[in-house]
Every structure is written in structure tokens, then in C-alpha cells.
Specification:
single chain; 71 residues; alpha+beta; four-stranded antiparallel beta sheet; 3 helices; 34% helix; 35% strand
């Protein structure tokens, strides 16, 4: 899992529901941002969501995220 922040393209409740369907845990919405723990294997599917505008890792240590993704 990786901590992520996603910005909704429209309704953040729709994005939150879409992300939870892909396995996001501890999802929280504030404004247009949805944050939570996302399975690494679900990131490609999340990137293709129509309800998603943009997403990024919530952690400053991107190198650790890449290592975990490639392990």
C-alpha cells in the first residue's frame, strides 16, 4: 500500500467510491481531495478513472515507493 492524494475531476464522493472499489483503505475526502492507502497493484486502474483529475503520492520519500512497487 502507498499513501496517496487524488484530486476529483468532479464529484469527490464519486471518486472516493471509485477508489474504495479498487481497494483504497482509510479513504477521507476534504474538498476535491481524496486521500488514503491504495494498493500498489491498483494504481494503474485508478489512473484510468474518469472521476480522477490528478493523483500523487502523499509521502515525501518517492524512492521508497518506487522500490516497493518494483519489489
Amino acid at each position: 500500500y502507498v499513501m496517496v492524494d487524488f484530486t476529483a475531476a468532479g464529484d469527490p464522493a464519486k471518486l472516493k467510491a471509485d477508489l474504495e472499489a479498487l481497494g483504497m483503505q482509510q479513504a477521507v475526502a476534504f474538498g476535491r481531495i481524496v486521500s488514503g492507502r491504495m494498493p500498489l497493484k491498483a494504481l494503474r486502474k485508478a489512473a484510468a478513472l474518469g472521476s480522477l483529475h490528478v493523483g500523487r503520492a502523499a509521502l515525501a520519500d518517492c524512492a521508497a515507493i518506487l522500490k516497493a512497487a518494483l519489489a
